[in-house]
Amino acid sequence: MQGILRIENASKSFQAPEGGVIRALDNVSLTVAHNEFLTLLGPSGCGKTTLLRAVSGFEDLDSGEIYIDGQPVSDQPAHKRPVNTVFQRYALFPHLTVERNVAYSLEVRGTAKAEIRERVGNMLELVGLAGMGARKIGQLSGGQQQRVALARSLVAQPKILLLDEPLSALDKNLRHKMQQELKTLQHELGISFIFVTHDQEEALVMSDRIAVLNGGTIQQLDAPEELYRRPGSEFVARFIGESNLLDATVVSVEGESCDVVLTDGTVIRDCPVNGLKRGDPAKVLIRPENLVEGFGQSNPDERAGHEISGTVSESFFAGTDYHLVLACKGLPPVRASLRAGPGTSHHTIGEQTSLFVPHDAVHLIPGKGAPA
Amino acid sequence: MRRKISWRNLFLSVYGWLFLVFIYVPILLITVFSFNSNPVNMMIWQGFTFDWYRTIFGFPTELNELTLYVESTDQLYNAVLNSLTVALITTAVSTVLGTSVALAVARFRFRLKNFYRALMFMPMIMPDIILGIALLIFFVSFGFGLGLHTIIIGHCTFLSSYVFIVVSARISDMDDSLEEASADLGADGWTTFKRVTLPLIAPGVIGGAMLAFIISMDDLVITYFISGVDSTTLPVHIYGMLRRGIKPEINAIATVMLVFSFIIASVGLYMRSRKK
Known about the structure:
The complex is a heterodimer.
Chain A: E1 5-15, E2 21-32, E3 37-41, H1 48-56, E4 63-68, E5 71-72, E6 83-86, H2 98-108, H3 113-126, H4 142-154, E7 160-164, H5 172-189, E8 192-197, H6 200-206, E9 209-214, E10 217-222, H7 224-229, H8 234-239, E11 244-254, E12 257-262, E13 267-272, E14 281-286, H9 295-298, E15 305-317, E16 321-327, E17 334-339, E18 352-358, E19 363-366
Parallel strand pairs in A: 3-8, 3-9, 6-7, 7-8
Antiparallel strand pairs in A: 1-2, 1-4, 4-5, 9-10, 11-12, 11-14, 12-13, 14-19, 15-16, 15-18, 16-17
Helix pairs in contact in A: 2-3, 2-4, 3-4
Chain B: H1 7-33, H2 51-56, H3 73-107, H4 113-125, H5 128-141, H6 148-172, H7 177-184, H8 189-218, H9 221-226, H10 234-243, H11 248-275
């Protein structure tokens, strides 16, 4: 795929202050398509910011190459690369007005005054700051500063817009609003966005694809739904969303489905095989919201689900859901979120209860020793 | 009911007043005595006169040869001119040097960085008299003839440190992602310096420059060692006059210097307040 950005075997190590070497990027390869919203997601220190800074030109790679629109850019300094960055704390120039901040890249390139005026005006309108051009940066709210930073980066018409956790400083409501706006903006402009975040929810909401990074390598690169439903590794399953991961062994394989047995002896039938063979260890992923009550009564087909019974050890009400933790014999504690609708009720601690797992809600992750 | 006297408050207000008295009364006295017409004992008020000012500015006065101490205003003017020359050149050079080092230490990673930083603090810690002697030995042993140029070099060595410290403080307040943002938006290194770094550290640079100017104008100890015979600065000249007896013109010269410093400081403060 000839994308707008291609990263080939990028590696980068840092000297740790306390001695030793940190491998921030370990042979990372990645292609970003035209007009794609790609998120680099991972815990702090996973290498996501290093990767972004390597693209913008603020970090040199130890090895590997980066191609922007087919051109290798390793020899290009940051100011010559056709990408722009929205910084985490915006990095707006405090000595310039909103207008001059946005105009900066055009002024530096020697664009004609009339054109600057027009493009800056259009851009301020696009981000909803029309008429605020004469303000000082210090007079703006966090959300407004965010928009100025966005306008300042976009006015240069970059081939790729890089966003380094730009929403982390905003409060929750504003953050949700900006997530929508960013997504819409990206769609309208048709520019590829590379968005760095450690917030998995944010990543799921906004991205076309998400690259989950850990320890300097890409763990998985997929569409949000795929990543959530069929994580390729235990790390991804744990990092994205809530999860129950139960140890299991494959007991039989039949075409594309297989049966596994849990540590307490429960057999779960008809799981997607996911490349596993008979006798392979695996992790069974069950999302808490996929556990349901009373499944057996309303759907008598036994093959459609499995029962998990145990004692309620934690129980609380969280508005849309009841959260339960079930202590089951021979299994780690199982967490469940039950939709709080009519007919569901609060479970008391110590109560015996059964929950059902629809068989299509089960995902197998190859366990230790299994082929990856 | 009787109001209780708070000894603590009394002590603090006495302390506060004494503080002001010791700082400002000497300055006030010099100003007042510069208008005293008593030519013999300037501590005894005899009447108001502008004569001392007339003398230092070279206007004819009614004072006779006996009471007049200034041998020639030429020497005085020469000293003022020397001081201004030294201060202006020193300020320009040490501002550029100090700011450059401050930027280099703050922005780049290099070997022995902390050593360089410590080196920049050295001239501030070193006693002036040691620095003066050291410079004198250096100039003499390397065959520099003493003159204005040695004063300028000498002043630059320690004033660069002052500028370095003032500018460093300002840089540490500055977000370094601003420079990255500028590069990201297409500005090369020089453009970034001109459009972002310099405007943001300007108050520090101006502050450092003013400090350098005032210290250079004011320095006696170091200058005393490294000035040549014909290259006397104003403080060295005044010191020379004092050695031959306290003369009333000194008060007038001091007052003029005071007004001059006050103007520079006011301009500086005004410019700083405008920046914010």
